[in-house]
Amino acid sequence: MRNTAKITTAVLAAGALTLGLSACGSDKDSGSGDANATLTVAATPTPQGEILTHIKDNLAKKAGLDLEVKEFTDYVTPNTAVQQGEVDANYFQHQPYLDDFNKKNGTDIVAVPGATVHLEPLGLYSKGVKKLDDLKKGATVALPNDTTNEARALKLLEANGLIGLKSGAGYDATPKDVTSNPRNLEFKELEAAQLPRSLGDVDAAVINGNYALEADLSPAEDALVAESPKDNPYANFLAVKKGDEDDPRIQKLAELLTSAEVKKFIEDKYDGAVVAAF
């Protein structure tokens, strides 16, 4: 049985949080260090929540792990929940995003060593355009508005010859860093979860893999162009508040997330739309 709590959250701008995270205490006993306590993990629904639920239903009991999965629909709350101690860990993000989040919010969340799990290739999608060459001049392209994913989207466009970015543009690149735009593309910045719904209002949109999957879009089949997994820094991992990396429950989950059984699950279920990173 799927034992998850679907939590719909208001979309928050990560750079404008005023939660006083460092001062917030926890109303939840995390059970850190107790291998028998329930491990509660926050995740976005697809594919992270599905992967965790597969572990919960098929692998956790044998490993002696009592796993609870809580699903969130945005990219902010899973980190604030870890920082505040409302959950023990999260699984939804890549390193550039986490670095940016920690810097902006004064949080101290870290990746669990050896628990990098998968990549969701970012893709450019369109309802009206069937191939990249048909993207017209002056087309409007929607981008995710969080810092690292916007830069990632711009780098995807650059890699496919649509734009050029100034030398040295890194993980915080924005449309202001575009130095060459031969098709005079217009950029519309939206919260990542809204991008699939924007396809009827724009000519194309760069959509994160998990939100594409939730909208029945496949990077392998539907994207005009998609990221290559080779040497890609955007793989997703298990993350915790600093100091909790050695929690025995976290170590058990890390082993399960990078097991042969989970790799086969990813390959069989997602058919290239999600790629194992271990």
TrEMBL record:
PROSITE patterns the record matches: PROKAR_LIPOPROTEIN
Alphabetized InterPro entries for the sequence: Lipoprotein_NlpA
Subcellular location: Membrane
Membrane-protein topology: Lipid-anchor
CDD domains per the UniProt record, alphabetical: PBP2_lipoprotein_Tp32
Signal peptide range: 1-23
Annotated keywords: Lipoprotein, Membrane, Palmitate, Signal
Keyword field contains Membrane: yes
SUPFAM superfamilies: Periplasmic binding protein-like II
Keyword Ribosomal protein: no
Protein family: Belongs to the nlpA lipoprotein family.
Protein name: Lipoprotein
